[in-house]
Write a structure and sequence with these properties.
Elements lengths: L4 H8 L7 E3 L7 E9 L9 H5 L5 E5 L2 E4 L2 E4 L2 E8 H8 L12 E8 L16 E6 L2 E6 L2 E7 L2
Protein name: Lipocalin-like domain-containing protein
Length: 153
């Protein structure tokens, strides 16, 4: 089973204490429209042209699976944890302010699944790690590029 990057690093270090395993949480269940790329100073493996292809696309989170860009991935479970601003910066080399988040801490949901080729470029699955950015807003990433998504009606 593939673990999201954050969970994989934390489990390797024995630090995943406090993360709660659950099904896909209600807080993200449904459809989300990718609004824009969030400019950050971290290193990513996609260029701007590749990243732009995901803007305007729709993510769908349902019990047991997620779908983005026509690719569906079965989700075994979701790990949820709260990260302080500093902890998030230390783990991802991205400040929450770069993601448009003013809160001192965020909830991160890491969807656990098998490796999959959703994008045709990597086995990383865009949207498998979700940061709750505010009411009706989430931040997802793909290959080090961060995207703002809003709940679709």
């Amino acid at each position: 089973m593939r673990l999201g990057l954050g969970a994989g690093l934390l489990m390797a270090g024995g630090l995943l204490q406090g993360a709660a395993a659950q099904a896909v949480p209600q807080s993200i269940t449904g459809r989300w429209r990718v609004e824009r790329i969030l400019p950050t100073h971290n290193v990513g493996c996609w260029d701007a042209e590749r990243a732009k292809t995901l803007v305007g696309s729709t993510l769908r989170y349902e019990q047991g699976r997620m779908t983005w860009q026509g690719g569906t991935v079965e989700v075994a479970e979701a790990l949820s944890r709260t990260l302080s601003r500093r902890k998030y910066q230390d783990e991802y080399s991205v400040d929450l302010a770069e993601l448009g988040i003013k809160a001192a801490e965020v909830v991160e949901i890491d969807l656990q699944h098998e490796d999959a080729d959703v994008t045709g470029a990597t086995t990383e699955v865009p949207g498998d790690t979700v940061v709750m950015a505010g009411p009706g807003r989430i931040v997802v990433s793909a290959c080090g590029v961060y995207f703002l998504a809003v709940r679709a009606r």
